[in-house]
Write a structure and sequence with these properties.
Elements (H helix, E strand, L loop, with lengths): L1 E9 L7 E8 L4 H40 L5 H7 L4 H26 L9
Antiparallel strand pairs: 1-2
């Protein structure tokens, strides 16, 4: 698969993003399969990145709840109810990344069993 054109758009407004696009020149058969594998990997990666974002949101909500009660209860009680400490957060993050990467590998392995052609 050969990249033939690469472009980049930059949104300079607050919170703006950089949007990159690439156009590929490809021929049927194996290069089509490469493109399919790439696109599937990209989509699965997007899914598990959204799960990581949700994990971060959950952690922030948890910390916010702990901060709300820290003046009302003992420090020992706070430690006891802190179910999403750094170790647990790292554990869930690693599990999410491992599951996403394993899914990509499984799909790539599955696609190796197929011959893919474009419709004419």
């Amino acid at each position: 698969m050969k990249e033939i054109r690469h472009s980049k758009q930059v949104d300079f407004t607050p919170g703006g993003r950089i949007i990159e696009s690439k156009e590929y020149k490809f021929t049927p058969d194996e290069e089509i399969k490469e493109l399919l594998v790439y696109q599937v990997g990209r989509i699965v990666t997007k899914l598990f990145k959204s799960q990581l974002t949700q994990l971060e949101d959950l952690k922030q909500d948890h910390l916010s709840a702990l901060n709300k009660v820290e003046d009302l209860v003992s420090e020992d009680f706070i430690k006891m109810i802190d179910f999403l400490d750094e170790d647990k957060h790292a554990y869930f993050r690693k599990k999410t990344l491992d599951a996403g990467n394993e899914t990509i590998r499984e799909i790539e392995g599955l696609l190796e069993n197929f011959e893919i052609r474009l419709k004419k």
